[in-house]
Amino acid sequence: MMTYLRRQGLRIGGFILLLIAYLSNSILLEFATKYASKNAGLANRFIGAMLIMVAAILVLYTWLYNRQLKRHNPRQFGHQAFNRHRLGQLLLAFVLMLAVQIAWSQLISHHLLPMPTNQSALDGQIQQLPFWNTVYGVVIAPVFEEYLFRGFFFNFFFSKNSPWSNVFGVFVSGLIFGYLHTMTFSVTTLFYASLGWVLAGAYLYFKDIRYSIILHFVNNLWAVL
Question: How far apart are CA 96 and CA 81, in angstroms?
Fold first, then answer.
């Protein structure tokens, strides 16, 4: 029992450290956004530091993820060839995510649900520093978040290939994904969690993290168009 608890403690600690690395990187972008209109030179230095950190985190995440799969990979995650059939299924997953967002926006427009509190903050950041906030939200964030909330999360905590592990893993993965987008438990958390559930389901179904990254990328791209 003590060995199991120690192992789980190390996994939780490792996951938190990987999450902190990602959040620290996003803070650099927040500082760049803050100083964009006040001190362009300082903002550019923050952007430079952010890009260096992005490269370092990407190398770390990719190496660690592939290392984990080599050690223990009962679901046979890897690179599944892209073909018309899989891309069609991926499109259906995007349509599902789009349906969730349309339904949610309709509930907001009819004053049945509140506007997400973080949305206005995100819109303000994009206005202050449009190019880098858009690039980060559309390209960088999907890669890091899929490694964290799908790849590492399942490898650390739900690595067994069983119905219980798959279903509960998808549920918890989406819930954490939703909470970290709102930093509070509210009805809006369920909105982001539902998107996380679709992404987690796609990761397990396609058995290739590139599919969930593409799905996440297309969804975020659609949101800024």
Answer: 23
Q: Which domain holds residue 39?
A: 2-224
The amino acid present at 154, given as its one-letter code, is F
Give the integer Cα–Cα distance in Å for 150 and 206. Answer: 12
Residue-wise pLDDT for 128-165, tens only, equals 889 999 999 999 999 999 999 999 999 999 988 899 99
Tally of domains in the chain: 1
Angle between helices 2-35 and 40-71 (to 10 degrees): 160
Find out whether 154 and 68 touch, Cβ atoms under 8 Å: no
Owner of token pair 């939200």? 137
Is the separation of the CB atoms in 71 and 159 below 8 Å? no
Alpha carbons 198 and 45: distance in angstroms, whole number = 37
